[in-house]
């Protein structure tokens, strides 16, 4: 079981308050992702839950029990670090067995669990190697192995994929999601990458300057961002924001339209502009349109087959049913 | 052509390095050579370099006149004991400074090092009086304590530098894995710092072995190490250079051999982090 509740938790380093009072509940078995730009306090929040940092005030509960003052080892949580943090002087086998050894578990039980974790993570052939002899992806798997053998109440991941190259990152992302489905254990995952957040999470927690901007499922955040910050942060390419007369037509201070919700045409449309840079991904093409009189650049996501050239004048038509409206304070208008 | 210049420069550099090395080594070489001369050859002018009557008589006289093994044993106990005690105290100290630093950590480190800048003779009198009161004068345990205290700042500094190189996340991982503070230091930190700890031990054994000021001033007959053994041959009734040289050679031989065999470790330890 791993239900984690934060109740008015704050954290200050000296006079600087990095986490203002914050309430959050992560349900048992949930995959929660903390996402936000760097310096938003997401890693600090994870370290508070882990017990590696002490809260300044407030309460952390794990399965209803007050864990605020419980040392990290006794919280029943396992953590996977960005740098893997493997023990370089120990073999893979000893690395994975370490938490069990610390728990004074019987040797045959340790062996059984290490074998189990190694076969789940395809590490059986590497058990007698040192971390220095493994690739980045294998090291990350050892770090995950060290976490799963303990059968923790929850897993904490601190940007675990940011040291891997792009191809491996996608692979490991799927492996971690697969692991979550199989173990059905609570996972809290910190990342600055909104793609990781969208693809993996049951629940996304968007943070800015220690504040929670919005909590919801990936699609809730995509469809109904609560404010301009969340609207701009979730979704790739970024949502287009338009102010002024065009926004006033919708009775809003600012309107937001996602690049995939704008149709392009050579001959007719609501707006017109000149094609700037085109990014061809094969399946899709992103056009950056200038001189629309609406905003400096309007980004449009079109089919990969559409071929406009730099400087072409084209026409755009937004889908009216998915226009996001925001007031002068940047808050969503229902 | 560039290649020719490089190789000439290489030759010059090599010659220079050998020159500097020989200048540094020459006094030791001269001491060793003199130890095989007769007293007459030792003071003759112009000095004889290699062509003299080689003799071992100085060694047998020195061996007859004083108990070399007793001094050697004292040196081993004092150098080894003070280093071991220093390490036991310095490991937790360096751990706390490297991994849970406070606002004052840098100041404490500087303050500790500043004690090394104090002329030792400045505290000789109070320490001498304390030793009399505590009955530590001319005891090995007394010297172990004093040399440990003298070298502690260096031990802490060296270990602190090595520990700083160990990523904090690994220790945090150990904490998450359920290791207590003792287990964290024992199973994770110490094994990772072994090369650093080894070179710290080595350097401090050498420093303690060669330490002369305190060993000469705080010992008489019983606890004197090899430095006292050498000093006993610089007698007021006239110097016997050959015998003094034989005593010196016997005193420095063990540490010279230790240094020779561990030079790789020593150099690697001292440049740890800089050329990793």
Order of helices and strands of chain A: EEEHEEEHHHEHEHEEHHEHEEEEEEE
Structural class of chain A: alpha+beta
**C-alpha Rg of chain A (nearest Å):** 24 Å
State the share of residues found in helices of chain B, binned by percent: over 70%
The CATH class of the largest domain in chain B is Mainly Alpha
CATH homologous superfamily (4th level) name of the largest domain in chain A: P-loop containing nucleotide triphosphate hydrolases
Order of strands side by side in the largest beta sheet of chain A? 6-7-8-3-9-10
CATH topology of the largest domain in chain B: MetI-like fold
Briefly note the structural class of the backbone of chain B. mainly alpha
Order of helices and strands of chain B: HHHHHHHHHHHHH
Instruction: State the helicity of chain A in percent bands.
Output: 25-40%
Total domain units of chain B: 2
Strand content of chain A: 25-35%
- Strand tally of chain B is 0
Question: What coarse outline of chain B follows from CA principal-axis ratios?
Answer: globular
Distance between the termini of chain A: 37 Å
Into which percentage range does the β-strand content of chain B fall?
Answer: under 5%
Biggest interface and residues each: A-B, 23 and 18 residues
Oligomer: heterodimer
The major beta sheet of chain B can be summarized as: none
Domain ABC transporter (chain A): 4-234
Pfam family, one (chain A): ABC_tran
Protein name (chain A): ABC transporter ATP-binding protein
Keywords (chain A): ATP-binding, Nucleotide-binding, Transport
Structure commentary:
The complex is a heterodimer of chains A (334) and B (276). By secondary structure, chain A is an alpha+beta fold. Chain A folds into two domains: 4-231, P-loop containing nucleotide triphosphate hydrolases (Rossmann fold, 3-Layer(aba) Sandwich), CATH 3.40.50.300; 238-326, OB fold (Dihydrolipoamide Acetyltransferase, E2P) (Beta Barrel), CATH 2.40.50.140. Chain A contains nine helices and 18 strands. Chain A has helices at residues 42-50, 92-102, 107-120, 136-148, 166-183, 194-200, 218-223, 228-233, 245-249; strands at residues 4-13, 16-26, 31-35, 57-62, 65-66, 77-80, 154-158, 186-191, 203-208, 211-216, 240-243, 254-257, 262-265, 271-280, 284-290, 298-303, 313-318, 324-326. In chain A, the strands form four sheets. A six-stranded mixed beta sheet of chain A has the order 6-7-8-3-9-10, sandwiched between helices. In chain A, a hairpin with a 2-residue loop joins β1 and β2. In chain A, α2 crosses α3 (107-120) and α2 (92-102) runs parallel beside α4 (136-148). The longest helix of chain A has 18 residues, at 166-183. Chain A starts with a strand and ends in an 8-residue tail after the last strand. The mean pLDDT of chain A is 92. By secondary structure, chain B is mainly alpha-helical. Chain B has two domains: 2-57, no CATH class; 66-232, MetI-like (MetI-like fold, Orthogonal Bundle). The longest helix of chain B is centred in the N-terminal third of the chain and has 33 residues, at 2-34. Chain B is globular. The mean pLDDT of chain B is 86. The chains are: A alpha+beta (334), B mainly alpha (276).
